[in-house]
Predict the structure.
Amino acid sequence: MTLSEFLQAIHQSAFATAIREGAMLFPLAESTHVAALAFVFGTVVLVDLRLLGLASRKQSIAKLTNDLLPWTWGAFVIAAITGLSLFSSTPERYFENGYLRLKFLFMFLAGVNMLVFHFITQKNVKDWDTDPVPPMGARVAGGLSILFWACVIFFGRWVGFTL
Amino acid sequence: MPDAGIMNLADWIATTSLSHAIGMRLWAIPTIQSVHIMSLAIVLASAVVVDLRILGLMSSDQSLSAMARRYFPGVWIALIFATISGLLLLIAEPVRSLPTWEFQGKMASLLAVVIITVTFQRTIAARAAEWDAAPALPAVARLAAVVSIALWIVIIFGGRWIAYHAG
């Protein structure tokens, strides 16, 4: 099966047809996508501002991330499911869309940044967990995270104007 | 049927030079919308984490007054950016948004949730000693937290639904 056959098969599925042709399903999925993504972005920024030493400076970094990030991941799952549902409605057009590709590129970069922070920078978090302003590595991770996620939202919004 | 006064206002805004200036630049509306979504995201997240704490679903081991002091300022700062970007979008496309029930419902919900949030901020500060030590908050506070979360979702749906307004 080639890629274009695969996209066409998605297009023709009952699920995709329902989203494409139902009056309410697409707006419902899109609004849910925006609400979930807004919660993801908002909570990620709350963590990033802490890493930058700009907010929540009295709070332990480990505590803050342990409290917020499970909810972030929950919202991310909802955003992913609704996002894939939107994609399935006209998969060939979404796949061809350059802005959607850029959105995924920046989501990938945000993911790499997160992994580097989690597995390398955060290793000695005990030494700076309660510092009002964390070390350079953590601040860079926080700044890059805000930048990458802002690009995800920016290019995501452009998809709606270019399909 | 939208009110004639609102339609006239929308038509007038559409004739202003600022409305033309935004409308003529293809990049402007998606860019302002992105800023609007990001600002609203920070408002939403900051308010909802306190709501979740009030409901006992997040950070139950931390004092509510500390949570409120940490997150409520972000609600108001980000709300300023959301309001400015929202006003610019309204000026750019007044006829598309102002007369719709989706926009008007969004603004009514925003007013309601701002009142709830201000009340929470004041009450949590005033009753810090009592509420910080309480194992569970009064039912009315928990109900208001649920209403707050619901209103934020309604606000986002209302905003997105303006794009689908028929008529």
Notes: Chain A is about 80% helix and 0% strand. The two ends of chain A are 25 Å apart (CA to CA). Residues 60 and 66 of chain A are 10 Å apart (CA to CA).
